[in-house]
Amino acid sequence: MAQTQKISTCLWFDTEAEDAVNFYVSTFEDSHVVRMSRYGKDQRMPAGTVLTVEFDLAGTRFMALNGGPLFKFTEASSMVVKCDTQAEIDRVWDALLADGGTEVQCGWLKDKYGLSWQIVPVELGDMMQDSDSEKTARVMAALLQMAKLDVDKLTAAFKGETVG
After folding, report:
1. Domain boundaries along the sequence of the chain
2. Topology of domain 73-164, per CATH?
3. What is the per-residue pLDDT for 164?
4. Mean per-residue pLDDT over the chain, rounded
5. Confidence of residue 5 (pLDDT cuts 50, 70, 90)
6. How would residue 9 be classed by pLDDT, with cut points 50, 70 and 90?
7. Residue 132 has what pLDDT?
């Protein structure tokens, strides 16, 4: 099989890699498990336990590893999901919060596995990098008031308008 992505991310789980991957591929369209390996006899975990899962989320390849409880996720790394519509933001946000996720701020959340995600409208990058610092300041001020991002409110802030 030809390699199409030179660099990918490995996510370290204690024992939840298979469950987490199944959750992630069910959350994002055009996603699937690519392949899976399992621990053998006399290894770190019981034989048959998932060792690694290679998976594709909407065109980006990842690997999940069941490595034990040595490391935990932190906010120092997060998955950024650029959404085309408010409906997509709402759907992804709700799915990732299901069964124990936690809202944070500014479009950030932690899923039930502790992985941090940023759920943002695709146009946010252009708004925040606009050459007009007053526009970017208004967007940042609006952003800081939100947990889940609201495209209409961010767009209104960018334009200097108010939304009821």
Report:
1. 7-71, 73-164
2. 2,3-Dihydroxybiphenyl 1,2-Dioxygenase; domain 1 (3.10.180)
3. 63
4. 95
5. confident
6. very high
7. 97
Of residues 123, 122, 163, 132, the one with CA closest to residue 145: 163
Domain 7-71 shares a fold with domain 73-164: no
pLDDT of residue 23: 98
DSSP collapsed to 3 states, the chain: CCCCCCCCEEEEECCCHHHHHHHHHHHCCCCEEEEEEECCCCCCCCCCCEEEEEEEECCEEEEEEECCCCCCCCCCCCEEEEECCHHHHHHHHHHHHCCCCEECCCCEEECCCCCEEEEEECCHHHHHCCCCHHHHHHHHHHHCCCCCCCHHHHHHHHHCCCCC
The fold of 7-71 is 3.30.720
